[in-house]
Design brief:
Layout (H helix, E strand, L loop, with lengths): L1 E4 L5 E4 L1 H7 L3 H4 L13 H11 L4 E9 L5 E13 L2 E10 L1 H23 L3 E5 L5 E4 L1 H7 L3 H6 L11 H14 L1 E9 L5 E13 L2 E10 L1 H23 L3 E6 L4 E4 L1 H7 L11 H4 L2 H17 L3 E9 L2 E11 L9 E8 L1 H42 L5 H15 L3 E8 L2 E9 L2 H13 L7 H10 L3 E3 L4 H7 L6 H6 L4 E9 L2 E10 L2 H8 L1 H77 L6 H30 L7 E4 H14 L7 E4 L4 E4 L1 H17 L8 E9 L4 E8 L31 H11 L4 E6 L3 E9 L2 H5 L1
Parallel strand pairs: 22-24
Antiparallel strand pairs: 1-2, 1-5, 3-4, 4-5, 6-7, 6-10, 8-9, 9-10, 11-12, 11-15, 13-14, 14-15, 16-17, 16-20, 18-19, 19-20, 21-23, 24-25, 25-27, 26-27
Helix pairs in contact: 12-13, 12-19, 13-19, 19-20, 20-23, 21-22, 22-23
């Protein structure tokens, strides 16, 4: 008991029981407040209790207090007000209920634990009374059967089983209550009719004087499947082990074999013998047994799988096996055992050996191919030099020599047969100083094997000379100037190859190679390549020399052409002067003839008979015709001297213009002229206009008498020759094609003047104009059906001129 002041909560009195309960002395207690007895976490609850105490007696229930040493205790608090003058006091009775609270908490914990265990059991938990009614169960029973808790509470345990099994179920329950224990395997039937194999076990327990069966049901369907799978796996493992093409065994290290398959017995010759229980020492020769035990020990000590190639004697002789061995550390009873799988790889090893041989062969072939490729690249570089236009023969040989000393030789020199004498034209060395030494030796030591006289002998024999080893004795023998010995030695010559350069047995010159080190072996292996190289060099050099000779001849020819051109221009000028003179001189007598004949007709018309008048008229007409011939001849002459001025223009516009002009000059006709779409061309429009005027005049003039002209103008592109082909077709009188070669000649006419007028200049002028434009003219005709005149013009005249 304790009394405290309601105003400041200070404790004013305590009894001995309180001192014993809390562990304070009375003096210590009277210095405390009731707040000091409560844990901080319950201060809020204390305030609520104090509020209730204002109303009088209060039962605060069980609260937590703290003893002096900090130990928590549980006390039940009853309080009521105490009258003591003006003081606001309150009496508190505190009953220690710590043991009761602790026991209650333990009970609740045990209950929660029991519930948790029951609910988390792997199967169904149940409590059954003697009537077979289920009184308690876990959630699994509801989940597995599909029945709700209400349905389970109302039903008998028998509803979960097949009626045929009810007698067995009842007997098991009765036996459990009689003996205290019951077991049963049967199918549990769910609400939707599924059958699940279950194992039930229960034992009796008495609660509150009544016996109950408390049991557990386990789903054993997985065990059934597992047993079936285990059996299948064992059968499968046995089948694999016994039918495997590999040897399979289990054995203790340096101990007996525990398992071997038939392949082990067949291959190793133990068929019909006992292997299980024997050791390697019993089965194999001593050295082999020691090696096998050593390998097995290594596997066991490492704790990991290891692979070995083992040569084992078999009934068919020694064979190579690829064996994988691994320890069986985690299998009870096999802690000192290893399992091995050995595969016969004898054929594979033989195949590997053959493959290795093939690889080496392929390697050699690849190296050979690389060598051929490098040689082809070398020849390609040489060919590139030959294809480089603009170089002289000597310039080309210099470039070839540069490639040769870069690729295959220390020194390369070329001598050409010029005016029946070999002359050194090229000398190249990788080292420029040694190049100068080689030149000097050649110039000062003509009798040495590297000299012109020796090369001439090689060329005459038309056979190569290869000296694979140049000895000091050989040098001394050929060296006519001993003071050059040091310089010869400086060249470090090991071998020499001299090849004649021949084109169809015709001597061109020689190629000399000075070699050292691997170059000598290279040359010995590449004789065909060097023959090809020498032939290419000879052929290309011969070609270049011929071209140089032709260039000299062309230069001479060009000078002659220039002289002839100058003479021709001079002759043309003289011809032009002559033409003008002839034209002038011929026109004066023609005018006189025409004038006098006209005067005779005018002044003596009546005195002339009919024949005289006719003769004078013929004189007048022929005089006019002669004048036209002179005019046409001058036009034809001038055409070759006119400057051509090319520009791009529309051929359609030009043709339409010419059609209008020619139609106007034939007013008595009603022509039909069809002009297709014509391309633009680049040409002299003035000259092309003359072409179309002449062609159109002919088409109009040579139409069938009494009929209007029908004319068709077309064009097409010849892509292969890159020319436009123009044509003009008329439906006129035509001509016999056997005279076609005369059609474009000067003064060549295929019809008489009585039939059709003309001078025979028009088509000759057309051909000359088209020729000046790098084109061609031709015709096709059928007498009585018409004529087609064709001419061509280049699409790109600039390419033609170039």
């Amino acid at each position: 008991m304790l009394i405290y002041n309601r105003e400041d909560l200070s404790i004013v009195d305590v009894n001995p029981s309180a001192l014993a309960l809390y562990g304070y002395t009375k003096e210590e207690f009277l210095k405390l407040t009731i707040r000091d007895l409560r844990p901080v976490s319950e201060f809020e609850k204390l305030e609520q209790e104090l509020d209730k105490q204002e109303k009088g007696f209060n039962d605060a229930g069980i609260v937590s207090h703290l003893r002096k040493d900090g130990t928590p205790i549980h006390v039940r608090i009853l309080s009521s007000p105490v009258k003591n003058g003006d003081s606001n006091l309150r009496l508190v009775l505190a009953q220690n209920v710590t043991e009761y609270v602790d026991a209650k908490e333990r009970l609740e914990n045990e209950k929660e634990m029991l519930t948790a265990v029951t609910q988390n059991l792997p199967g169904t938990f149940y409590v059954i009374n003697q009537e077979g009614k289920i009184l308690r169960w876990n959630k699994n029973l509801e989940t597995i059967t599909g029945y709700s808790s209400q349905e389970i509470a109302k039903s008998s345990a028998l509803i979960y089983f097949d009626p045929k099994d009810h007698p067995r179920i009842k007997k098991a329950i009765a036996e459990g209550f009689r003996t205290g224990k019951a077991e049963l395997k049967t199918n549990l039937i769910t609400k939707n009719g599924d059958r699940i194999p279950f194992y039930f076990s229960a034992s009796t327990s008495t609660l509150y004087g009544e016996p109950y069966l408390i049991g557990l049901g386990i789903d054993i369907s997985k065990q059934h499947k597992a047993q079936e799978q285990l059996l299948q796996q064992k059968m499968l493992l046995d089948a694999i082990t016994q039918q495997s093409e590999s040897i399979i065994f289990v054995k203790d290290v340096d101990g007996p074999y525990k398992l071997v398959n038939e392949k082990f017995k067949q291959d190793l010759g133990f068929t019909g013998q006992k292997v299980i229980g024997n050791t390697d020492r019993n089965l194999f020769e001593t050295e082999l047994a020691k090696q096998l035990i050593k390998d097995d020990t290594q596997v066991l000590e490492s704790g990991t799988a290891k692979r070995f190639e083992e040569i084992i004697p078999t009934v068919d002789g020694s064979k190579t096996y690829y064996t994988v061995k691994y320890p069986l550390l985690d299998i009870p009873g096999y802690e000192n055992s290893i399992c091995g799988i050995a595969t016969d790889i004898t054929e594979l090893k033989e195949a590997e050996s053959k493959l290795e041989e093939l690889y080496e062969k392929e390697k050699r072939e690849r190296e050979q191919l690389q060598l051929i490729n490098s040689r082809l690249q070398f020849l390609s570089r040489i060919n590139t030099i030959f294809l480089d236009a603009g170089n002289t023969a000597v310039e080309t040989l210099e470039k070839v020599a540069d490639v040769i000393v870069e690729e295959i030789a220390d020194l390369c020199s070329f001598d050409l047969l010029i005016d029946d004498q070999l002359q050194r034209v090229v000398t190249r060395h990788r080292d420029k100083k040694k190049e100068e030494i080689a030149r000097r030796i050649h110039e000062t030591n003509p009798d040495m094997f590297y000299s012109s006289s020796f090369l001439s002998e090689v060329l005459s024999a038309k056979k190569q000379v290869f000296i694979p080893e140049i000895s000091d004795q050989l040098i001394d023998e050929y060296l006519t100037q001993p003071e050059l010995a040091d310089q010869v030695e400086a060249l470090e010559i090991e071998s020499v190859l001299i090849k004649p350069l021949l084109v169809q047995d015709r001597e061109i010159g020689t190629m000399t190679l000075l070699l050292s080190g691997e170059q000598t072996e290279w040359v010995e292996d590449a004789s065909i390549l060097l023959d090809e190289l020498a032939y290419k060099i000879a052929l290309a050099t011969d070609h270049l020399l011929v071209n140089e000779e032709l260039a000299k001849l062309n230069e001479t020819l060009e000078k002659k052409v220039e002289q002839r051109t100058e003479m021709l221009e001079k002759a043309n000028k003289e011809l032009e002067s002559f033409s003008y003179s002839v034209s002038h001189d011929l026109r004066a007598p023609l005018r006189a003839i025409d004038g006098y004949s006209s005067l005779l007709l005018e002044d003596y018309y009546d005195e002339l008979d009919e024949d005289g008048k006719e003769f004078l008229n013929i004189v007048n007409e022929e005089t006019k015709r002669m004048g036209e011939l002179i005019d046409d001849l001058l036009s034809f002459s001038r055409m070759s001297r006119l400057n051509k001025s090319a520009a791009r223009f529309s051929m359609n516009d030009l043709v339409n213009e010419c059609v209008e002009e020619v139609t106007a000059s034939f007013p008595d006709t009603d022509p039909v002229v069809e002009v297709e779409e014509l391309p633009e061309v680049e040409a002299d429009s003035r000259l092309l206009k003359q072409v179309w005027l002449n062609l159109l005049n002919n088409s109009f003039k040579y139409c069938e008498p009494g009929k209007d002209p029908k004319i068709y103008i077309r064009s097409e592109l010849n892509e292969e020759k890159q020319v436009y082909i123009f044509s003009i077709e008329d439906k006129g009188v035509g001509f016999d094609m056997k005279y076609a070669d005369k059609l474009f000649g000067v003064f060549q006419r295929l019809h008489s003047d009585d039939e059709f007028e003309g001078t025979g200049i028009g088509l000759a002028l057309v051909r000359r104009i088209i020729n000046r434009h790098h084109g061609k003219t031709w015709a096709d005709s059928t007498p009585g059906k018409g004529t087609i005149i064709y001419f061509s013009l280049p699409v790109n005249p600039h390419k033609i001129s170039q």
